[in-house]
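Allow me, if you will, to draw on your knowledge of protein folds for a short while. The matter concerns a single protein, recorded as an amino acid sequence and a row of backbone structure tokens. Could you please explain, in whatever detail you think fit, how the structure tokens follow from the sequence? I remain grateful for any guidance, and I place the record below:

…
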Amino acid sequence: MNTDRALVLQFLQDGRKPAAITSNPLARELGGALLELDTDRREALLAFEPSPRFAQGAQVLQGGIVATLLDFAMAFAAHVTLAAEERPFATATLAVSLLRPAPPGRYLARGRIIRAGRSLLFASGELTAGTDGKTVATASGVMPLSDT
């Protein structure tokens, strides 16, 4: 079983208490925590606190790291959407809009599944700064579902 899926199922069964993301080494390195999962709204809310080592020369998070935070949020929303069935998926397309600089610090990443078809999931994500709640970046993605 996918380790992120296992964490989602455990979170749903254990009273939905915030928990560190221990299922994925990269999420762990980025200071990831699972805050909320909503099966009805097909949403996931994650917190991240990337260290300065993920910053580029201007001392803001590298754009690929910002995209990664959004991709995690959308993937966890997909796991929530597919909680009743075990169907592998992967991100096939990911479009990210970087709206403002993101210095190292605490961020909230919300992922949503906008539409769940038989073979595709359509997702959106929003990354907000933990200090002031301003939107730092948004994303959309498509995730094909596998039959195996």
Observations:
- Strands lie at 19-20, 33-38, 43-48, 93-98, 107-116, 120-129, 135-144.
